[in-house]
């Protein structure tokens, strides 16, 4: 083949015009601990820090790279292209540990990849002359360095390690077909033939232990996962539950085996540094176990919910029982449930929530042994938690195969039959119709599928007939399955290696034109790269090696479509977007097929081409017809006509190029045939998309308008989506207007000119110039203004001394400095929008409403954003690209949380009607591990006061409110105190006045009355205080919560007031009433925020503090308990420190009773407002996960659950 230079000038190398930079890469956990660190890394200067981190952390070879290399002479191979190995002569005096190092220079990786591809291509005569090979090498190095394109992750992991460094290792059981002899060969070592393929489809027979059977599949999967690849299989051959076995007995069904495979996949990570296993499980809709399969993940998620809720309830109630045992006087028998009413009630409440009787008796026994508490393991809904590890179905994507017959049966409300697998074989052998083992309404199964997708985001759906009507090689068998991300669909036991082009690199922002010539050149070169990768590869089984050689399927695609549409000023949900998508995909696809035909002319077609020539040319003609958008009746062999390119909405130059390339691909194919059965897919481009600094992946739209760019020194800097400014410019907005729109979206990053909260108002509240300077410095990078007003930015000393905040307030995660300073929620919101931006363009100054759609994202943007791309728009974009793709499109269709089951049905149905091959739906919050985005609703609720809510309810529902008041009057009856009651007396001096506070308590330690006595005071004042105490006591006995009195009377100001003497916690009061209710709040409510000094030691000596919290101790059924307390018993050790009484631990992984991890929830809410999913990365712990095709990826470290 002749290869010309398009990007690198003649006589220059790829790196001559590229500026490089030296960086460091550090990836940290949220707690600051280092996950990965590497220094002195050489990368192209224009690369982002995220791209640098991914190259350094994931793709640099970390061991086995010789310090000195030498070329290995090989006949017929130019010196510059010869492979290298360790120069042991030069390193003979080196210590063993100094002979080898790691890759640290990006050019080493670019050379390793491009050199290996060129080497194999040269050896097998892919290039006409040596200069063609040299041009090929330089162009590829340039495209890799300049982020024009990137191959899938396994290429970065494995390709060129032997060619560049002489790395070898024992064979891992792989096979390949020798390109010259055509014979199947077992690999001699692990790296001479690399494993560059990301996507595999593996066959499965209904056999337990033999080759090709169930247990053999787990071994084959493990071999793929080890090298960073993903795999999918159709399990429909396995017999259903209770289906007869040949040797007698009955089958245990498909689900039992799926659970084994799921556990196996969950235990494997590829090398520990790449990613977890990626796996697809597919099942036909006529399988006897289809209902159980469809509902699998729903039930497993319900198990997780049960484990989480049950563990917390058990912890709560078991500790309540053990506390009740110790609530009575030591001389009484606290373990007699007849005498100890608190214990009896605790047991009754535990039984109400189905606490096992065995555990109730167990904790009572433990209490008798002297234990004061138990720590019971509590689980949470994090998808990496013990709860999720306990259940199955969490390590694969699940899909069903729907035929046209099933879809039509749903529409027509017809019956649907399920068949034993043995019956299908028997009927086929006897040439008769099979007898169903079960008949059900198609709509009933359709309902279960839709509900399951609504509940758990699984299963996805693959449209069997649509897939096979576009099948280029039906004579080799039908397509039954896909890879994990659903973009590669071909025969069982085949593989596909992927590469993606970065569309933004072919777009000129200055001219607003797409460089078609450069795009064609890249498509041609990368088709050759992928073809050579098939030639040089090794495979995990004999069948895959043989069939990959015979069909040679490729997976070229693109990324950044959403970003390019936005820059061009084209709404994602528009006819023009559909036409542009179709044209760009057609140019890529048909250029790739034309290149395949060109290679076939020089090297021969793929071995099975002749068997499938007519069918393959039929498919190519259909691709061409879609480019010309001919009438639906003219397509050959298609039940559902595709969505062609609408010439009325497509730019003329793109339409012309798409049609020219279609003509060329068909013409060359008819003349030479094709080298490859398939050439294109749209992959999720997860990690490699970040490596190319793509804003969007595949055909996905963008997820946010404001992003947080990682800095080389750590931390993040807030930037506007890079697509927004050029899009505004292309739309005709002036520079000044663009600046204002961006400021509205991203924020001013300064308090200068800020309404309400600014330098002047803060100075009035005591802020100094130095502190204001600190605030200004931190504002450009913050997500919310409250993140600047904290003790870390302002300084603890300033907060306590100048602003008067206590240490407890500053340590409280929920403490809001601005609110405490007296700013209203409205002022804070206005300042937040001004400083940090709204994160949406909705309502921006100067921006015309008709342009809003251009900037729509997959999710709502920011707190006030309302717009997002509809499910139909996602489906139509897929439908516009699908007619020009050999495989399929990996994409998730996002739906809001309020989407209904009917919405899920409609999305599936519309996908089928528009000719999409596969579909995966994701409703926000459908996964238990992902919290809902309820931030806005919560904040709106917090703005209103209780009185506002009461008035609103009164206006809208007066009748209900009146009835509610009557009920409360009935249940708030007076509760009698025991004749002999516990309590305490506290003496204190306020100024020169002595105050005696005496309390009376119920049996469970709840406050029921107070007595107040004054020393040396007039009779009138003493009488008033006595009457006040009676009034408070009556309120307490009628159920008024102590909190209400505390909130009402704390901070009241009158004399006597001043310094308090005699109280260990309270040292200052504004009045006697203020002092009294501070004391009661500290003692009975644990309100340490109202104390000045925390001093528990004196209270622990008091008998009343030996009482434990007891809830629900009632004298009548109708009462309500409004407040309660927990006072732990402590003892002093020999060194004088205080420790708790003995406790038993039942598990090392424990949590406090009914606790909520507020900081994590807040982080997740913040992440969702930034456009992330709210999931936590398993690799680096960051909350920066985004949807990536059918999977997830972390934009901090590049971790992905997909194939690329």
Describe the structure.
The protein is an alpha+beta fold and about 1200 residues long. About 40% of the residues lie in helices and about 15% in strands. It has 42 helices and 35 strands. Strands 7, 10, 11, 12, 14, 17, 18, 21, 24 and 25 form a 10-stranded mixed β-sheet that branches. Strands 28-27-26-29-30 form a 5-stranded antiparallel β-sheet. Strand 31 and strand 32 (about 1140) form a beta hairpin. Helix 2 (about 105-125) packs antiparallel against helix 3, helix 20 (about 575-605) packs parallel to helix 33 (about 870-880) and helix 21 (about 610-630) packs antiparallel against helix 22. The longest helix has 30 residues, at about 295-325. The radius of gyration is 35 Å and the shape is globular. The two termini are about 30 Å apart. Mean pLDDT is about 85; it is low at about 270-275, about 930-970 and about 1095-1160.
Show the helix and strand layout.
Layout: E1 20-28, E2 34-44, H1 49-59, E3 65-66, E4 69-71, E5 84-86, E6 100-101, H2 106-123, H3 130-145, E7 149-151, H4 153-158, H5 161-165, E8 175-177, E9 184-186, E10 199-201, H6 214-226, E11 230-234, H7 254-266, E12 278-284, H8 290-294, H9 296-325, H10 341-352, H11 357-368, E13 373-375, H12 386-390, E14 397-402, H13 404-412, E15 415-418, H14 421-430, E16 438-441, H15 442-456, E17 460-463, H16 464-469, E18 494-502, E19 507-508, E20 513-514, H17 516-536, H18 542-551, E21 554-559, H19 561-567, H20 575-603, H21 609-628, H22 652-672, H23 686-691, E22 706-710, E23 716-720, H24 724-730, H25 735-746, H26 759-764, H27 769-778, H28 791-794, H29 796-801, H30 807-811, H31 817-820, H32 825-835, H33 871-881, E24 892-895, H34 901-913, E25 918-923, H35 935-943, H36 946-956, H37 958-971, E26 985-990, E27 993-1001, E28 1007-1014, H38 1019-1037, H39 1042-1049, E29 1058-1061, E30 1068-1069, H40 1072-1085, H41 1097-1100, E31 1130-1132, E32 1138-1140, E33 1143-1145, H42 1158-1169, E34 1185-1188, E35 1191-1194
Parallel strand pairs: 10-11, 11-12, 12-14, 13-33, 14-17, 18-21, 24-25
Antiparallel strand pairs: 1-2, 3-6, 4-5, 7-18, 8-9, 10-18, 15-16, 17-25, 19-20, 22-23, 26-27, 26-29, 27-28, 29-30, 31-32, 34-35
Helix pairs in contact: 2-3, 2-17, 6-7, 9-10, 9-11, 15-34, 17-20, 20-22, 20-33, 21-22, 39-40
């Amino acid at each position: 083949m002749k290869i010309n230079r398009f990007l690198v000038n003649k006589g220059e190398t790829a790196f001559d015009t590229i500026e490089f930079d030296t960086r460091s890469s550090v990836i940290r956990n949220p707690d600051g601990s280092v996950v990965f660190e590497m220094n002195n890394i050489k990368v192209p200067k224009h690369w982002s820090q995220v791209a640098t981190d991914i190259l350094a952390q994931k793709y640099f070879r970390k061991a086995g790279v010789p310090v000195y290399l030498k070329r290995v002479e090989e006949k017929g191979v130019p010196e510059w292209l010869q492979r290298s190995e360790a120069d042991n002569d030069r390193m003979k005096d080196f210590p063993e540990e100094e002979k080898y190092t790691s890759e640290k220079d990006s050019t080493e990786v670019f050379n390793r990849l491009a050199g290996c591809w060129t080497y194999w291509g040269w050896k097998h005569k892919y290039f006409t002359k040596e200069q063609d090979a040299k041009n090929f090498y330089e162009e590829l190095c340039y495209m890799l360095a300049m982020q024009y394109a990137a191959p899938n992750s396994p290429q970065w992991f494995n390709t060129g390690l032997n060619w560049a460094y002489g790395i070898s290792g024992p064979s891992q059981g792989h096979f390949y077909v020798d390109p010259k002899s055509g014979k199947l060969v077992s690999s001699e070592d692990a790296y001479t033939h690399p494993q560059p393929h990301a996507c595999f489809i593996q066959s499965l027979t209904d056999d337990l232990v033999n080759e090709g059977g169930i247990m053999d599949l787990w071994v084959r999967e493990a071999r793929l996962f080890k090298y960073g690849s993903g795999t999918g299989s159709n399990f429909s051959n396995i017999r259903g539950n209770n289906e007869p076995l040949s040797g007698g007995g009955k089958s245990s069904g498909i689900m039992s085996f799926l659970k084994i495979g799921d556990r196996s996949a969950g235990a494997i990570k590829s090398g520990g540094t790449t990613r977890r296993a990626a796996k697809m499980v597919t099942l036909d809709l006529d399988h006897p176990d289809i209902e159980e399969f469809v509902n699998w993940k729903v039930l497993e998620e319900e198990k997780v919910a049960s484990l989480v809720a049950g563990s917390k309830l058990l912890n709560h109630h078991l500790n309540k029982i053990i506390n009740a045992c110790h609530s009575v006087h030591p001389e009484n028998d606290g373990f007699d449930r007849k005498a100890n009413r608190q214990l009896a009630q605790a047991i009754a409440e535990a039984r109400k929530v189905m606490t096992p009787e065995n555990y109730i008796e167990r904790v009572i026994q433990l209490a008798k042994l002297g234990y004061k508490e138990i720590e019971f393991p509590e689980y949470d809904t994090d998808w990496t938690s013990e709860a999720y590890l306990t259940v199955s179905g969490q390590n694969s994507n699940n899909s069903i195969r729907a035929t046209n017959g099933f879809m039509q049966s749903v529409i027509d409300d017809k019956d649907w039959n399920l068949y034993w697998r043995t019956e299908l074989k028997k009927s086929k052998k006897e040439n008769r119709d099979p007898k169903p083992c079960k008949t059900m309404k198609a709509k009933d199964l359709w309902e279960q599928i839709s509900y399951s997708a609504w509940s758990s985001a699984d299963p996805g759906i693959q449209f069997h007939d649509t897939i096979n009507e576009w099948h280029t090689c039906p004579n080799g068998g039908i397509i039954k399955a896909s890879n994990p991300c659903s973009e590669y669909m071909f025969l069982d036991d085949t593989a596909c290696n992927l590469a993606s082009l970065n569309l933004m690199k072919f777009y000129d922002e200055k001219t607003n034109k797409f460089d078609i010539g450069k795009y064609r050149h890249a498509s041609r070169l990368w088709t050759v790269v992928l073809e050579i990768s098939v030639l040089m590869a090794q495979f995990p089984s004999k069948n895959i090696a043989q069939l990959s050689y015979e069909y040679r399927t490729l997976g070229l695609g693109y990324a950044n479509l959403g970003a390019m549409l936005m820059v061009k000023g084209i709404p994602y949900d528009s006819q023009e977007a559909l036409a542009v998508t179709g044209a760009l995909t057609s140019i890529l696809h048909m250029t790739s097929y034309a290149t395949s035909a060109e290679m076939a002319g020089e090297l021969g077609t793929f071995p099975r081409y002749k068997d499938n020539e007519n069918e393959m040319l039929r498919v190519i003609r259909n691709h061409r017809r879609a480019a010309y958008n001919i009438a639906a009746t003219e397509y050959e062999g298609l039940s559902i006509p595709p969505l062609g390119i609408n010439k009325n909405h497509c730019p003329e130059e793109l339409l012309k190029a798409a049609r020219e390339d279609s003509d060329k691909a068909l013409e060359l194919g008819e003349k030479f045939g094709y080298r490859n059965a398939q050439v294109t897919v749209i992959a999720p481009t997860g990690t490699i998309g970040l490596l190319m600094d793509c804003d969007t992946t595949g055909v996905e739209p963008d997820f946010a308008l404001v992003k947080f760019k990682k800095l080389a020194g750590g931390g993040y800097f807030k930037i506007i989506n890079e697509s927004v400014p050029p899009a505004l410019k292309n739309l005709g907005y002036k520079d000044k207007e663009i600046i204002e729109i961006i400021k509205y979206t991203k924020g001013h990053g300064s308090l200068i000119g800020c309404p309400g909260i600014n330098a002047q108002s803060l100075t009035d509240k005591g802020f100094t110039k130095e502190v204001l300077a600190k605030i200004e410095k931190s504002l450009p990078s913050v997500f919310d203004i409250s993140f600047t007003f904290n003790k870390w930015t302002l300084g603890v000393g300033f907060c306590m001394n100048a602003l008067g905040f206590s240490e407890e307030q500053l340590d409280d995660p929920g403490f809001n400095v601005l609110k405490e300073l007296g700013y209203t929620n409205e002022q804070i919101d206005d300042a937040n929008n001004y400083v940090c931006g709204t994160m949406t363009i909705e309502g921006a100054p100067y921006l015309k409403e008709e342009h809003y759609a251009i900037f729509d994202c997959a999710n709502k943007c920011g707190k006030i954003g309302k717009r997002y791309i509809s499910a139909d728009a996602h489906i139509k974009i897929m439908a516009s690209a699908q007619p020009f793709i050999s495989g399929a499109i990996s994409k998730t269709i996002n739906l809001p949380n309020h989407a209904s089951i009917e919405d899920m049905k409609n999305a599936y149905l519309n996908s089928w009607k528009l000719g999409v091959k596969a579909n995966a739906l994701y409703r926000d919050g459908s996964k238990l591990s992902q919290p809902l985005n309820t931030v806005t609703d919560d904040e709106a609720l917090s703005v209103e006061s209780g009185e506002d809510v009461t008035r609103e309810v009164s206006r809208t529902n007066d009748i209900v409110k009146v009835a509610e008041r009557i009920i409360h009057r009935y249940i708030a009856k007076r509760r009698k105190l025991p004749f002999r009651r516990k309590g305490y007396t506290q003496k204190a001096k306020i100024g020169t006045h002595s105050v005696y506070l005496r309390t009376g308590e119920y049996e469970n330690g709840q406050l029921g009355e107070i007595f107040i006595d004054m020393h040396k005071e007039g009779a009138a004042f003493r009488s008033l205080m006595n009457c006040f105490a009676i009034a408070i006591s009556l309120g307490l006995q009628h159920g008024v919560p102590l909190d209400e009195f505390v909130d009402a009377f704390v901070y009241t100001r009158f004399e006597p007031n001043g310094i308090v003497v005699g109280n260990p916690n309270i040292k200052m009061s504004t009045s006697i009433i203020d002092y009294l209710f501070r004391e009661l709040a500290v003692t009975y409510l644990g309100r340490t925020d109202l104390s000045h000094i925390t001093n528990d030691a004196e209270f622990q000596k008091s008998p009343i503090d030996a009482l434990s919290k007891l809830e629900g101790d009632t004298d009548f059924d109708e009462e309500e308990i409004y407040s309660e307390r927990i006072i732990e018993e402590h003892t002093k050790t020999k060194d004088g420190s205080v420790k708790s009484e003995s406790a038993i631990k039942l598990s090392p992984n424990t949590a406090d009773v009914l606790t909520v991890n507020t900081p994590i929830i807040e982080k997740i809410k913040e992440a969702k407002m930034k456009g992330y999913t709210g999931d936590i990365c398993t690799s680096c712990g960051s909350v920066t996960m985004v949807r990536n095709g059918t999977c997830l990826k972390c934009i901090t470290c590049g971790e992905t659950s997909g194939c690329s």
